[in-house]
Amino acid sequence: MADRERAVLARAMLEDALRHAIDDGSFNEPFARTGDASTGDMLSFTTRGIVPPLGASGRWRVVAHQDRIEAAPIDEPGPRLRTTLPGVVALRVITLQSSDRVPPTVRIEFRTAGEALAPIVTRTAGGVLR
Q1: C-alpha span between 38 and 56 (Å, rounded)
Q2: Which residue has the higher pLDDT, 9 or 25?
Q3: In a domain, 21, yes or no
Q4: What local confidence, expressed as pLDDT, does residue 127 receive?
Q5: Position 74 in a domain
Q6: Cα(79)–Cα(76) distance, rounded to whole angstroms?
Q7: What is residue 27's three-state secondary structure?
Q8: Is residue 86 part of a domain?
Q9: 3-state secondary structure of 13
Q10: Closest CA to 102 of 43, 57, 52
Q11: Number of domains making up the chain
Q12: Contact present, 44 and 62 (Cβ < 8 Å)
């Protein structure tokens, strides 16, 4: 699989995870942490959007930083998922409210070393399952 295809698939996985992000209070971490220009921002959130049925599956903890996305199951044992965003050197997270909780809308921009990767602009579950 080419790097471009890998990046597009990883981007789609992150978008699904964001669309089904929940604010269940299971972790005391902010949704997004601002980084510097070289490393970019980091996302850390709980979701029900990693495996089907999206929105109704078990909870997963997702961390996205620089060029990688990691997801670990919370409710039942299982393998961690790890993927990379080839060509991405940093993430930029933009929300319209405090990044301590799951915001209703998120924009993720991908800073790349080469060919651009379209940003993600999505509505989240905003702390409520839908």
Answers
A1: 36
A2: 9
A3: yes
A4: 44
A5: yes
A6: 10
A7: coil
A8: yes
A9: helix
A10: 43
A11: 1
A12: yes
Supply the DSSP symbol for 130.
-
Q: Is 88 helix (H, G, I), strand (E, B) or coil?
A: strand
* Cα 71 to Cα 55: distance, rounded to the nearest angstrom: 15
Show the domain range for 24.
3-123
Rounded to the nearest integer, the mean pLDDT of the chain is 85
Contacts of 68 (CB under 8 A, 6+ apart): 82, 83, 84, 85
Kindly report, residue by residue over 84-114, the tens digit of the pLDDT.
888 899 999 988 776 567 888 889 999 888 7
24 vs 7, more confident:
7
Prediction pTM value: 0.86
- 């930083």: which residue's tokens? 65
The position carrying tokens 């996302």 is: 43
Q: Is residue 130 part of a domain?
A: no
Residues of the chain above pLDDT 70, percent: 90
b/e 20-50 (16+ beta carbons within 10 angstroms → b): bbbbeeeeeeebbeebeeeebbbbbbbbbbb
